[in-house]
């Protein structure tokens, strides 16, 4: 659990009440399961260079910026790495266009 906490940036939080301890454990365990499932799906699709650290960096590279052009609010897609694009493809998540009006759903 400590490795999952460190990799997720959860660290030590105030966890003295049993309900909080169980909740913290559940969040850590779910993060672990999601991470392992994503690793499995990537390996199944013959993407072997996907360590937990590489997956984390890929997901962190997925960024949108909110910008305003002629009083219209838009999302501007940032540059993401190749693994991030593969993760989106495997999870069947449509990549947003480079510039998307805010009124439209991005994901």
Provide a descriptive summary of the structure in words.
The chain is an alpha+beta fold and 107 residues long. The chain has helices spanning 2-8, 18-44, 52-60, 82-90; strands at 64-69, 72-77, 99-101.
Keywords summarizing the entry:
single chain, 107 residues
SSE map:
Elements (H helix, E strand, L loop, with lengths): L1 H7 L9 H27 L7 H9 L3 E6 L2 E6 L4 H9 L8 E3 L6
Radius of gyration, in Å, reads 17 Å
Query: What sort of overall outline do the alpha carbons produce when their principal axes are compared?
Result: flat
Strand order of the largest sheet: 1-2-3
Structural class: alpha+beta
**Could you tell me the mean pLDDT?**
84
Unreliable residue stretches: none
Sheet of most strands: 3 strands, antiparallel
Oligomer: single chain
User: SSE order, as H and E?
Assistant: HHHEEHE
The fraction of residues in strands falls at: 5-15%
Quick description:
With 107 residues, the protein is an alpha+beta fold. It is 49% helix and 14% strand. Strands 1-2-3 form a three-stranded antiparallel sheet, with no helix packed on it.
């Amino acid at each position: 659990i400590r490795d999952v906490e460190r990799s997720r940036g959860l660290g030590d939080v105030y966890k003295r009440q049993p309900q909080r301890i169980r909740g913290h454990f559940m969040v850590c365990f779910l993060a672990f399961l999601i991470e392992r499932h994503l690793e499995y799906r990537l390996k199944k699709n013959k993407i072997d260079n996907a360590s937990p650290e590489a997956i984390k960096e890929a997901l962190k590279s997925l960024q949108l910026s909110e910008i305003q052009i002629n009083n219209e609010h838009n999302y501007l897609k940032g540059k993401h790495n190749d693994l991030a694009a593969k993760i989106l493809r495997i999870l069947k998540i449509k990549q947003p266009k480079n510039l998307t009006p805010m009124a439209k759903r991005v994901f």
